[in-house]
Amino acid sequence: MRLRLLALLLLAVPVLAACGGDDEGDSSAGKCTYVEEGSAAKEAKLPPSEPKSADTLTVATNRGDMKLTLTPDAAPCTVNSFVSLAEQGYFDGTKCHRLVPGFVLQCGDPSATGAGGPGYSFDDELSGDETYPAGTLAMANAGPDTNGSQFFIVLADAQLPPSYTVFGKVDDAGLAVARAIEKDGNGPDGVAPAKDVVIESVS
């Protein structure tokens, strides 16, 4: 089964079965909770419960670099998880497995199947006022509180319900890289980008 962005988008995209963590990851108390479950697509340690803050990261790919500006104040546990996985090299050598032209580029699954994750999940960090303009960086999920490692970059202003934790944005140059990938379209399976998009490092 595949992790999805939105059930109403595209063909019926199967869902990755997963359970959520404790209330809001306890982020209101300055702590984050990550729940171990399932098997990891690539070995990963649980992130620390004390959130690490980071404001910028660079995703280096074989198609060009994407600089990310993160929002630890709005999504501390999401940023903490993403930074922890980046520091562990979890994303290194992985392919962006899903492209929906005019909508999103999705990455973060080492298995490149749409069903892989880090072997843990954590809760959404939502205000209910989320919007998804072009360049938004957000978590893919399989329903409430099922975040793992998969994330997406919004390619064009998207009308989505506020159900996907926003944890940053991609700079203009990085969005141009994503849109160049978009122009190539999809491969034979109609899901993956036509040309491989490989994350070389996140630092």
TrEMBL record:
It comes from the Bacteria. Residues 1-17 form the signal peptide. It holds the Pfam family Pro_isomerase. The keyword DNA-binding does not apply. Residues 53-203 form the PPIase cyclophilin-type domain. CDD domains: cyclophilin. One of its GO terms (molecular function) is isomerase activity. Its EC number is 5.2.1.8. It catalyses: [protein]-peptidylproline (omega=180) = [protein]-peptidylproline (omega=0). Keywords: Isomerase, Rotamase, Signal. InterPro entries: Cyclophilin-like_dom_sf, Cyclophilin-type_PPIase_dom, Cyclophilin_A-like. SUPFAM superfamilies: Cyclophilin-like (SSF50891). Belongs to the cyclophilin-type PPIase family. PANTHER family: PEPTIDYL-PROLYL CIS-TRANS ISOMERASE B-RELATED (PTHR45625:SF3), PEPTIDYL-PROLYL CIS-TRANS ISOMERASE-RELATED (PTHR45625). PPIases accelerate the folding of proteins. It catalyzes the cis-trans isomerization of proline imidic peptide bonds in oligopeptides. This is Peptidyl-prolyl cis-trans isomerase. It comes from Aeromicrobium senzhongii.
